[in-house]
Amino acid sequence: MDSAPITSLGKYRVETTLGAGAMGVVYRAFDPHIERRVALKTIRNELFDSGERASLMARFRNEAQAAGRLSHPNIVAVYDYGEADGTAYIAMEYVDGRSLEAFLRAGEPLDLHTALDWFTQLLAALAYAHEHGVVHRDIKPANLLVTTRGQLKVTDFGIAHIESSTLTVVGSVVGTPSYMAPEQFCGDSVDGRSDLFSAAVVLYQMLTGQRPFAGPPASVMQQVLRATPPRPTQRNPALPAALDAVLMRALSKERAARYQTPAELRAALVEALNGVSSHSTHSTFAEDDRTVLMAAAAGGTASSAFRPPPAPATVEKLPTVWPAGDLAAVQASLAAQVGPVARLLVARAAARAADLPTLSALLVPHIPSDKGRKQFADALSMLAEDASHGSLRTDTSQRPSQPPAAPRDGTSMSGSAPATSLTPEQIRAAALQLAVYLGPIAHLIVKREAPRALDLRMLQQRLADAISNDHDRASFLRVTGLRTD
């Protein structure tokens, strides 16, 4: 490394330069008072004008305050904050290792067990930070350090949000585009679920070698807000198929549809790979928060936090014992709560269930809110009642005869607003059908389009036009009977 340009800062003896950027330099230094090696992160005040300096210094002090209140083995410790000779500095734990970004630079997926081991440590760090009122807001590979012993540590709390803090960061949109949650792009308030979205992006990249959202910032923003990324197994077929459902839910656009806590996300991963009950894994997570999970040494065994399935995973198919219409009704009800991932969840659960109550019991834990679980349970109760009289049916199974086709723009022949013949039941059923492909936003789209449609057929056609994915649109058209091939 190059020789350090300065020899000391405050009480610290500067040894060498670890890195440099536009805002300042990071040094390796030594604290002679307690004989400890540290990393000194610095900002040179004279490099910025007065207005920019105030904002930057507020962010720098925010980092010291946010990380300084956290003491956890998976978070880089902050020891001191000071200013000397026109330079502000933070003295923090010196980590002998590399950033996760360095491991991912080649664009190749990591070993499954290594990736899950490191991700478990990340979840432990986030759980601790969130419990102490700190939301990181910039979780990305560059801010995750991996020691030579395989211990992951979270660093750079520069734009962290601290509950009850008077410190602010200028600008309402903060973060790194490819890893930002939808609410960050919109300038909405952030909470722990925003960090979990970013963490899921990191896991996706570790498992596939690619980011789910990539490209210029404007394109990334549109993808994060509107597009559904390819399932992980599409990019890495060697992955267990069960991971698809977990990752796609973790990347949901709506916060309420995601996993609500790090413990819940970890439990879902363990259940997906081990078949372990969510309740049992949830109860042991508190202990994991206090335990550093180490990556396996060369030639050793992988972390016991996750074990591979006994045989290569295969894509599950809908069993013949379930009529397709029955599962379509269940899938539509679940999609209203969790979005497009409902297709994968229902397919997996149907392979393990022989009756509706068992199917319901397997699906309910995937719904994040109590209200959503009740709504789903109520919907399945209605389906069960239908089943007692025959096969399950969606509300669209008995359609009224369709009147002649009307103009596609939604107006009547006279040019006035359409006098719709849609019933509330038809509108609700259409929303459930669309939710299978678009998630919870389907209800907003149906609410917008229903007044513009003369009849059910016109509504379904307008909804099909709202589905950007060609495969999904074709599937929707076949389900609704608009396409028969």
TrEMBL record:
Transmembrane segments: none annotated. One of its GO terms (molecular function) is ATP binding. This is non-specific serine/threonine protein kinase. PANTHER family: MITOGEN-ACTIVATED PROTEIN KINASE KINASE KINASE 20-RELATED, SERINE_THREONINE-PROTEIN KINASE NEKL-3. ATP binds at residue 41. Its EC number is 2.7.11.1. SUPFAM superfamilies: Protein kinase-like (PK-like) (SSF56112). Coiled coil: none annotated. Keywords: ATP-binding, Kinase, Nucleotide-binding, Serine/threonine-protein kinase, Transferase. Residues 12-285 form the Protein kinase domain. Residues 387-422 are annotated as: Disordered. It is an enzyme of class 2 (transferase).
